[in-house]
Amino acid sequence: MQAIDRARPLRVGVAGLGRLGRRHAQNLAYRVPGATLAAACSPLEADLAWAREALPAARLYGEYADLLADQAVDAVWLVTPSALHAGQIVQALEAGKHVFCEKPLSLDVAECERVVNVSRRHAGRQVTIGFMRRFDPSYQDAYAKVQAGAIGRPFLVRSQTCDLNDPEGFFVRFAPTSGGIFLDCTVHDIDVARWLLGKPRATRVYAAGAIALHEGLRESGDVDNGVAICEFEGGRLAMFYASRTMAHGNDTSSEVIGTAGALAIGRIPRANRVDVYDATGVRSVCTPTFFDRFEEAFLIEAQAFVAEVAARKAGDAQKGSLGATLEDALEATRIGQALRESLHTGAAVTL
Amino acid sequence: MQAIDRARPLRVGVAGLGRLGRRHAQNLAYRVPGATLAAACSPLEADLAWAREALPAARLYGEYADLLADQAVDAVWLVTPSALHAGQIVQALEAGKHVFCEKPLSLDVAECERVVNVSRRHAGRQVTIGFMRRFDPSYQDAYAKVQAGAIGRPFLVRSQTCDLNDPEGFFVRFAPTSGGIFLDCTVHDIDVARWLLGKPRATRVYAAGAIALHEGLRESGDVDNGVAICEFEGGRLAMFYASRTMAHGNDTSSEVIGTAGALAIGRIPRANRVDVYDATGVRSVCTPTFFDRFEEAFLIEAQAFVAEVAARKAGDAQKGSLGATLEDALEATRIGQALRESLHTGAAVTL
Amino acid sequence: MQAIDRARPLRVGVAGLGRLGRRHAQNLAYRVPGATLAAACSPLEADLAWAREALPAARLYGEYADLLADQAVDAVWLVTPSALHAGQIVQALEAGKHVFCEKPLSLDVAECERVVNVSRRHAGRQVTIGFMRRFDPSYQDAYAKVQAGAIGRPFLVRSQTCDLNDPEGFFVRFAPTSGGIFLDCTVHDIDVARWLLGKPRATRVYAAGAIALHEGLRESGDVDNGVAICEFEGGRLAMFYASRTMAHGNDTSSEVIGTAGALAIGRIPRANRVDVYDATGVRSVCTPTFFDRFEEAFLIEAQAFVAEVAARKAGDAQKGSLGATLEDALEATRIGQALRESLHTGAAVTL
Amino acid sequence: MQAIDRARPLRVGVAGLGRLGRRHAQNLAYRVPGATLAAACSPLEADLAWAREALPAARLYGEYADLLADQAVDAVWLVTPSALHAGQIVQALEAGKHVFCEKPLSLDVAECERVVNVSRRHAGRQVTIGFMRRFDPSYQDAYAKVQAGAIGRPFLVRSQTCDLNDPEGFFVRFAPTSGGIFLDCTVHDIDVARWLLGKPRATRVYAAGAIALHEGLRESGDVDNGVAICEFEGGRLAMFYASRTMAHGNDTSSEVIGTAGALAIGRIPRANRVDVYDATGVRSVCTPTFFDRFEEAFLIEAQAFVAEVAARKAGDAQKGSLGATLEDALEATRIGQALRESLHTGAAVTL
């Protein structure tokens, strides 16, 4: 973050002020050196009321178009519904903004490809898709160790995204539009696997699933527990597991196995450094939600985006983005869609 | 072990005195109350010489037929090459012996079925196939907790058999006859999964693999790292991983996930209760081989076999065998062969 | 942090810009909502040069008196040499400032008492001594659990402060003025023990020590490994361990044991959530220094100070400070001095 | 165990058939190659009735004198009340037997010395005091690593013996004769510390304690939680903790810290390799009693005794006993008594 210019901060406008949008906005407003939260927009009055209180320095808009028209905004930060992401990225690029967009880019492969194509005409702009797991310090450390050769040649990733069971079944109502468990959850593991394995292309996938608790998923063709295998070019492999029904907390973990060793990230999803000793044994309390687990990653992700834009401005040779590119996001959607197809057909899907 | 009659011990004859056979023989000779090692046989003079020294009380034979003809042998213990198992079990049953046989029953499904059929005519005899993992105290504890409802309804097992890399590649030379990684290693995980999930039948499997280090496997169509998904009737699932290339030791572990919790067995393959603190961090040294990991299981397995024969003799109601039955072994081979087929065809295999 | 008034932030002046002072200054400048870093002072030109670059918004002074004279400074933040703390706190209170001061208050009990007495005349001012461990999220969680009765009545604390061995022996040169291992390191454990046990007074202590590696300590009567027992009123106990010679990292941990359970904080000093699997076993890399271990605690400590001053201003009923008071710091010094005396005399010291 | 002669086994007679005596007797009867349980004695008819059933091959006696008179007994195994140990060892030596005796040798230092003196006249006999912890495989591994120099020069041991709280307070009734918590429990930690540190002599000790739950201990001057420091010659140190009031199980652990690293044994007292995931977090169930924790150690201890007698017989150069000698037991009692004195006087005790 050498290149950060505190005197000329990156002026960011956040679009979308739901639960996650508010977190991003507060990070950008108060915790990211080199950035200012210049503006925010939401179509909901409740969100704007919250923003007037919590983000007093930001200009507030009801319309995304107005945010884009604000010439004192350098970058937009999209935390809007997934279905809007692709279109809003294109608009932002055409308005000359840098773009950070929450995952997923789009559930539709063709639409992902369209955004990739548009972005090629705006090569001067930074575009990052928010696969925040890459910025978690433990994932960062594992990535650095892999790059340094600590495990030889990495050839297998095992990765899971498992949520604490929500008896209310929020995600059941969300199932018709979420794309299902693989596109909603496993997409993170897909990105982690490709990132740790050197960004290979997938060649074939297979998926299976079960409904353990939430029968309501059946009508949208979704499951609450899914397992998958993904084969990549060059004999590299991944195994994925996603669950909505954990009893103990949000349990997100990954392993990368190489020819000379392995690394596990987050083997026990402990909330902190406390162990409790009582009549049930010795236990670690677990992180309840991905917010708790990845709070720090969301912040570092924002700091990294600002640093990368600053590096661009300073003309630094691009060493490749740390965050997920549009191409990475396209590949994640392509694989996620193939997993979904495999779940439905019971057959392996060749890519 | 109430029913054990020390005055009239079970007289066991071991066939096969290789590395594992010797361990079984010593357990039976010195560590299994209610059993005596009455006899042993091996076609190799070196084995017999070892036995004369280590097993002075046992009658020694060069031929299996002579062991079977020994009327003072109640049970045979087969630790012979896998290809001989099926035939030797049939012969033993026909000679009126109880039979313990190391896994696998056979790599051939039809041959497994034939043995199952023969055994139906000898219902008074105990026949157990040596899936020793079931007898490991931690697996036993997990099984008991599942039976007691501690995790609700179990629906997913993840299980792995991972060996310390052998740079000599012993298993490479063994590959043409071992049946490959899934029939040699994963067969244990298949048995564990079915056992923990209530012995369901498999409906469909998919497998993939990679050669990380041992190129010599290519000509026998084998891999040194394999991953697989197995779907069972009733929406139950399993994920398997097998590896020949671990850097840290033999890492055999399993998880069973239910609707109200989960159990993990052997998450860190620590050799013992020691943690080492040094400049590299805080570490657990790992079990180097499956012998080290399952030494106790091999012993308890033998004790359980003797207790089950004693219970039969005492006319105790059969509550079902704790060890793997011939039917369990048949199903393990059936699934293992389907995994092998899937690895070779790249397609899911319906059972 | 309800009471934070972003429009009227607390204006802080940092005194002392060494390694730790710089960290505090950057936290206050960029990471503490409700605070601004208004000023900083150091007698060293190198520090001021650093500050001109890193803290462009702060007014810089060479003299502490000038910082105190700055009417646009509401609170001073003392990260100066320990010997100056007591005098500077008194001066700051007399200048009408709130005060945060790094530990220790003073190595001299009488001087601690003098500051306590002065502070009684300035009850409207917030004074906190920087025992940052209290603000670490895991220590916070343990404290909350104790308060909630999770372990019954707490009666024993075991706590340690162990540093990675420094072959250069920086602390050896520092030994003549540091007060020795118990006043320099164990003082944190003393504060933690009293805090978790309900702030009892000590009645008797005993200490012993050894020089494992750093013979240079002998002439100042210090040791590089010290152990101690502290008895408190009401049958409460503490055991302390301090070391300068760890091979694996900074290993700071504490346990609190109660009549119905126990809590351990930081049992393994893992740097992050990564486990490394290699030929040496499975290991966690450790936090190298207390900076790495307590980075977050230093920040939360600053945020809490600002929130407490804001709460005072808002007239909120004082529920007692979360941070260490002057009385806490006095008691820590009193106990630390008794430990030192016990180490030198070989006899228990009654307080 | 090279020297074991299966044809001429060591003929052992067990004295005392309480809970622990029965375990020793069964180990010797069925699980120790090279030994036979030739005889057993107990003054209680219930014990003898149990033995007739469980140990059919043993000659049974009501009087210890008759056991000693049995010429077909080579070694006696004392699991009698502690107060009888010293006298019975002397009698056994005078009858020409080898002796294994459960700890403690005696609570009286002078009596310990007397036995040591008597034993010097019977140098051909093996005498081992049952500090079984030395034979636990993890303690063995740590000892071997220390001997191999893995942690440099060891200078500090921290060791604890903590029992699951017994609401019935069996040990309260036992307190008047047990010698109190340090002589009953910590004596194991004393032996471990000396063993790992190279058998140094203690120079000074200090102890303190608290009654957390069992007020009934007050009248016998005992506590249910005790802490202690022990200084040894050569600047070596130990810290001890003993408790009768743990909520989670028997938690026996030790650490040995050296100039180049450290080893921890039994950091988490997990019952086995299972982790339970449920709404309370991720937990290990703990070993409930020392029987569960040290079952294997009791067996290996017996095997080692038999091997050492066999080695003596074979004229092997004595490399020093692995088990505790009478001199070790004397030193443990000397230190334990000093701890008790320190607890009562509140002063350090010089040895």
From TrEMBL, chains A, B, C, D:
Example of a GO cellular component annotation carried by this entry: cytoplasm
Record keyword Transcription present: no
Entries under Pfam families matching the protein: GFO_IDH_MocA (PF01408), GFO_IDH_MocA_C3 (PF22725)
Superkingdom of the source species: Bacteria
GO MF annotations in UniProt: inositol 2-dehydrogenase (NAD+) activity; nucleotide binding
SUPFAM superfamilies the UniProt entry points to: Glyceraldehyde-3-phosphate dehydrogenase-like, C-terminal domain, NAD(P)-binding Rossmann-fold domains
GFO/IDH/MocA-like oxidoreductase domain sequence ranges: 139-263
Gene Ontology biological process terms from the UniProt entry: NADPH regeneration
Record has Plastid as a keyword: no
The protein's Enzyme Commission number: 1.1.1.18, 1.1.1.369
Residue ranges constituting the Gfo/Idh/MocA-like oxidoreductase N-terminal domain according to the UniProt record: 10-130
Keywords: Oxidoreductase
Family, per entry: Belongs to the Gfo/Idh/MocA family.
Xref: PANTHER family: BINDING ROSSMANN FOLD OXIDOREDUCTASE, PUTATIVE (AFU_ORTHOLOGUE AFUA_2G10240)-RELATED, NAD(P)-BINDING ROSSMANN-FOLD SUPERFAMILY PROTEIN-RELATED
This protein's name: Myo-inositol 2-dehydrogenase/D-chiro-inositol 1-dehydrogenase
Native organism: Paraburkholderia silvatlantica
